[in-house]
Design a protein that fits this description.
Blueprint: E1 6-11, H1 25-34, E2 37-45, H2 56-60, H3 65-85, E3 91-98, H4 104-115, E4 120-122, E5 126-127, E6 130-131, H5 136-146, H6 149-167, E7 171-172, H7 185-189, H8 192-207, E8 211-215, H9 217-220, H10 230-238, E9 242-246, H11 259-268
Helix pairs in contact: 5-6, 6-8
């Protein structure tokens, strides 16, 4: 029987360059090597475009968008250095995870042109220019701002669709992250009008031949299933989509977390474990 390669299409956040992560980037890469990973994407968050769009931890640390832009350059330089240093031991991609807020349509292409990442992870962490995934309190605040949780879900999937259509990211990050603090997400994701938008987005991803990040971080935080959830995974199987595990690690303690469980879930749903890579080599 063919062995299943250990990979992460969305991982490697480090305390060196991410203020809600821990440990150095090199330590994290060495850990991936020690755990037998064949290839990984280091997918650091892109810098904020303006002060109001800083993450809460960045704001508390007194950081500025200007500093973070320069810091992102240092991240890319270090990632390229480590890419060369460990080339014989692991396939390493120097990638970036983007944000979607006012102005991202011009800002992300600027970042891609300036830093030339190996690929982009297209994620949505903002609805109505408000970050929803940092805490339950912020999640509720965003819901109140847009008129309710259902409305927040709809805005999320609409933003995601426009982002995918515009940027065509090689990887679509944690497709249903919008459910992060919603105990009723299973019911909500199966509402007919919600399914219609989910199918629309998946069909676009399939048409563009992109990868769905099977994001395992929710299991680390006590969730009962990864992003993407079971009802959406069934649709991904129906469309014969590329689904690849991402540990979304934020330090040594979470490198490779729940990889075996993730593979087991994908196998149960008949999803291929012959992993598609985020770019041709």
């Amino acid at each position: 029987m063919k062995s299943i390669e250990k990979v992460s299409v969305h991982g490697g956040h480090s305390g060196q360059f991410c203020y809600h992560a821990t440990d150095s980037l090199e330590e994290i890469i060495i850990s991936y090597i020690d755990k037998g990973f064949r290839w990984i994407g280091i997918t650091e968050h892109t810098p904020a475009l303006s002060e109001p769009l800083l993450y809460a931890d960045e704001r508390e640390a007194g950081l500025t968008p200007e500093f973070l832009l320069e810091e992102f350059g240092r991240y890319m330089d270090e990632c390229r250095r480590l890419q060369k240093k460990y080339k014989s031991q692991i396939g390493l991609y120097a990638a970036m995870e983007i944000e979607t807020y006012s102005g991202y349509e011009e800002f992300v292409p600027y970042l891609a042109d300036r830093f030339k990442p190996d690929y982009i992870v297209g994620s949505v962490h903002f609805v109505a220019d408000l970050n929803f995934d940092y805490s339950p309190e912020m999640y509720k605040q965003v819901a109140r701002t847009v008129g309710g949780i259902d409305e927040m879900y709809h805005a999320y999937f609409d933003t995601q669709y426009e982002m995918i259509k515009l940027l065509k990211p090689a990887v679509v990050g944690h497709f249903d992250l919008i459910r992060i603090f919603d105990q009723d997400y299973r019911m909500r994701l199966q509402q007919p009008d919600m399914v219609k938008k989910i199918r629309r987005n998946l069909e676009l991803i399939k048409d563009l031949d992109l990868i769905l990040d099977f994001n395992l971080r929710s299991l680390l935080k006590g969730g009962t299933e990864p992003y993407i959830s079971s009802s959406i995974l069934e649709l991904a199987r129906e469309y014969d989509m590329s689904v690849v595990p991402g540990d979304d690690s934020h330090g040594l303690a979470s490198v490779g977390n729940y990889f075996d469980k993730g593979v087991s879930i994908l196998q149960q749903y008949g999803i291929s474990t012959d992993w598609k890579k985020p770019l041709h080599e």
